Amino acid sequence: MKPLPKEFKVLQIEEKWQKRWEEMGIYRFDWKDRKRSTYVIDTPPPYPSGDFHMGNVLNWTYFDIVARYKRMRGFNVLFPQGWDCHGLPTEVETEKEHNIKKREVPPDRFVKLCEQLTSKYIDVMKDSIKRLAISVDWTTEYKTMNPDFWRRTQLSFILLHKKDLIYQGTYPINWCPRCETAIADAEVEHETKQGTLHYIKFKLEDGDHLTIATTRPELLPACVTVAVNPHDERYKQHIGKTIAVPTANRKVKIITDDLVDPTFGTGVVMICTYGDKADVKCTKQHKLPVIMAINEKGEMNKNAGKYAGLTIQQAKEAIVEDLKKQGLIEKTEPLQQEIGVCWRCDTPIEILEQKQWFMKTRMLTPLVEKNALEITWYPDYMKKRLIDWAKSLDWDWVISRQRIFATPIPIWYCKKCEHIILAEPDWVPIDPRTEPPKIDKCPKCGSTNFKPETDVLDTWFDSSISCAVHAGWPDKKDWQRLFPADLHPSGYDIIRTWAYYLMVRHLALFNQKPYKGCLINGMVLGTDGRMMHKSLGNYVAAPEVLDKYGADASRQWSATGGATGSDIPFRWPDVEYAWRFLIKLWNATRFASLHLQDYTPTKKEVKLELIDRWLLSKLNRVTQKTTEALDTCQFNIAMEEVRNFTWHQLCDSYIEAIKHRLYKPETYGEEKRKAAQHTLYTAIYRTSQLLAPVSPHITEEIYQLMYAEDKKHKSIHISPWPTPQKIDEEAEKYGDLLVAVIGEIRREKSEKRLPLNTFIKKLTIYAGSNKSAHILKQAIGDIAGTCKTEKIQILPKKGEGREVQGYTNVRYTANY
Ligand SMILES: [Zn+2]
Ligand SMILES: [Zn+2]
Fold it and tell me: How far is the C-alpha of 417 from the C-alpha of 440, rounded, in Å?
């Protein structure tokens, strides 16, 4: 056994172990091992943005704690690592960096540039992940932009297509005019914005008019009908008549629809192609014509007549101006309204009708619900988010995107007869944009001319097969032994994407749920309690925290910040507290290591004192509680248990109460010294083990210096998790009294500003009962030794003096 050095050099220690762990390979999944049970974590492949923030620190720490804990529990843990590469921001940044437009360079060249940028960011994030000591198995690393992953994504497309779960069609979809791509419902965020409600006069045939209220006058050219609620008595006489759409030179019919809210505006609304989802419903239900006036770039098209070519905003202004001139604006009023925006760029989305590829997801909703109920959620109430989301979906999942850096859709079209040619499973990976289909001629018309599908797949279409991919699908014959994953971690904000898409994809492909458990993390709030965000000035970068206090303390902050699933505030004092705790542990352990130099662990029974038995029983209790907490992913509870035990029971009470035995065996006896050594040796080992999943570096350092020689595990992180032994209720109860008495006397000294080693000439304890006196007499040596008494007397009767906190009948007098 080596003594711990005086100084706790946190950053040095952390760097050293991160390197050594990788060399030792202790986090590798053993593919050949068929004996141990497996535990599979569905690590969500991060999008390589180059940024690793405190939110990442929080959620990565959560699932790394689980991985480390399960490893110590004896599981063969598969903790893979992938990268979800295909992102729109990468395209945008690449365009900027090289000053090019993606459509103006050959797609393969543009893809190469995006790949370079992505690789650069992966390296940056990889460093952060290693620095946080995330125990992933780097031999499993994969990138969704690599052809080998394309192969899997494309194969899944082919299989779903053959199962008739993928279709192409012209339907209304969400469209981001800035990103110029279709986006799924899950990518639409809702924001409250201040808008203007325009009351516009529509002329009736009889010369009179109806006033409709709209926030989007620019959609007048796309107005296809005017609707009122069928029960609205005010407008009964107008139903079925026609009305003129201002500025559009068109007459439309006045219809009724239950969806019209008679209390909004005037109770008369215009239905356009498309202002919102209600328009879509109404258009479908009443088989209304489709007149789209906005194009993919967010500009007015030829259907907008004289407004063609204007942006949406310009058209709005121009139309309002014209209406004013014609005296058709009755009034305007401000309106708080919820609008859908693109989650990537915050641009208001439009609903356009376009030919796209879809996956049939809505038909799976009952299955999603059934499986969501079967899964263990940490915390349980989060399952509702998945179920509610699935039930709320109006449309199938639009999976095609009008981008370049993404997995190509493995489809071609016959130029002559438009026949769709789907790739065969053995053709993939393939890029139709640069490669022809592997057939001689069109099976339908015999033509040899094909054109590729130039649309690509939604990024979620890549990453939502991760559970199967991690298990080894489709290459490993027995991949099902690692499927479903045991745990899928996710932030609550992305349950509707990660958790949902994983669920529908795997159910559709394999008719099985992808994961058995779902671990949810909350968001990190900034120093001011608001959501942490760069633009709010409350942002703390992860490297700043790691540089100052190291990974072990940062991870403790993650674990202790709040209940699993709740939002966690970032507070510097919390990290500092964690760091001080580590120093406390280090100093206590160093003290122990110095006094254990001549100690040889023994299996023989050691004669223990009351306080030794007290500590060991408390140790069993904390082991039990920590184990229960970690089994249910309650990291804050686990950490509080370990910290309280270490700080208060081990350091403040126990170590202080046995120092005399360690220092002076000639006075207190060698056997009592051995008992203290045995207890310390056991307690520090166990504490280190309990703390290892949360703070892996300091515990490894302690283990390697003090225990490796004896315990013979390569690392504390693969040492077997301690099984709590019997709790000795009596020792705890009696020990609590002893600790309270010693604590009270020490507190008195410090209140009197006396050094703790000040001698008490005479200490008289009035135990208040025979039983208490008997208990305290058993430990008279530890009381005398710790409190430095020259003379001590323990009496069963009640007496005068200072009361011992928590024990109203126990008092003492001390003469200094
Ligand atoms: Zn956008
Ligand atoms: Zn053909």
Answer: 15
Q: Which amino acid is at 46?
A: P
DSSP state of 105: S
3-state SS class at 302: helix
Distance 134 CA to ligand 1 centre (A): 32
Helices (H), 692-799: 696-702, 708-711, 729-751, 770-778, 780-787
Centre of ligand 2 from the C-alpha of residue 451, in Å: 11
Query: How many A from CA of 446 to the centre of ligand 2?
Result: 6
Distance, in Å, from the CA atom of 293 to the CA atom of 309, rounded to the nearest integer, reads: 10
The pLDDT score that the predictor gives to residue 8 is: 93
Give 762 Cα–ligand 2 centroid separation in angstroms: 107
Contacts of residue 730, Cβ cutoff 8 Å, sequence gap at least 6: none
Q: Measure 158 CA to ligand 1 centroid, in angstroms.
A: 28
Report helix, strand or coil for 38.
strand
- When pLDDT is cut at 50, 70 and 90, the band that residue 366 belongs to is very high
Q: If you measure from the C-alpha of residue 119 to the centroid of ligand 1, how many angstroms do you get, rounded to a whole number?
A: 23
**Strand ranges (E), 217-320:** 223-228, 242-245, 250-256, 268-272
DSSP 549-617: HHHHHHHHHHHHSSSTTS-EE--HHHHHHHHHHHHHHHHHHHHHHHHTTT----SS-----HHHHHHHH
Separation of CA 183 and ligand 1 centre (Å): 8
- Beta strands 376-378 and 517-521 are parallel
Tokens read off for 722: 């301690």
- Closest ligand to C-alpha of residue 418 is 2
Which DSSP string do the residues of 187-203 spell out, in sequence order? GEEEEEEEEEEEEEEEE
N- to C-terminal Cα separation, the chain: 41
Give pLDDT tens digits for 95-119. 999 999 888 899 889 999 999 999 9
Give dist(CA 531, CA 517) in Å, integer.
27
Q: Ligand 1 centre from 112 Cα, in Å? A: 23
Q: Is 287 exposed, middle or buried (0-12, 13-18, 19+ CB in 10 A)?
A: exposed
pLDDT at residue number 49: 87
Taking the CA of 349 as reference, the closest ligand is 1
pLDDT grade, residue 681 (50/70/90)?
very high
The pLDDT, as a whole number, for residue 187 is 87
Long-range contacts of 23-27 (CB under 8 A, 24+ apart): 24/714, 24/715, 26/714, 26/715, 26/717, 26/718, 27/67, 27/71, 27/77, 27/79, 27/135, 27/136, 27/137, 27/717
Taking Cα atoms as reference points, which of 659, 671, 682 lies closest to residue 603?
682
Place of tokens 């006069």: 201
247 C-alpha to ligand 1 centroid (Å): 30
The answer on pLDDT for 254 being more than 80 is yes
pLDDT bin (cut points 50, 70, 90) of residue 255 is very high
pLDDT of residue 535: 77
- Segment 285-318, tens digit of pLDDT: 999 999 999 999 999 999 999 999 999 999 999 9
How many Å lie between the centroid of ligand 2 and the Cα of residue 425? 21
Q: Separation of 188 CA from ligand 1 center, angstroms? A: 9
Q: What is the pLDDT, as a whole number, of residue 423? A: 98
Question: Taking a C-beta distance cutoff of 8 angstroms, is the pair 339, 196 a contact?
Answer: no
Distance 92 CA to ligand 1 centre (A): 10
The answer to whether the CB of 688 falls within 8 A of the CB of 703 is yes
Distance CA 455, CA 29 (A): 37
Tell me, in angstroms, the distance from the centre of ligand 1 to residue 344's CA. Answer: 5
**Which ligand places an atom closest to the C-alpha of 451?**
2
The pLDDT, as a whole number, for residue 536 is 81
**Ligand 1: distance of its center to the CA of 739 in Å?**
64
Asked if residues 410 and 158 have their Cβ atoms less than 8 Å apart, the reply is yes
Task: Please check the confidence at residue 50 and state whether its pLDDT lies above 90.
Answer: no
Helix axes 780-787, 656-663, angle to 10 degrees: 90
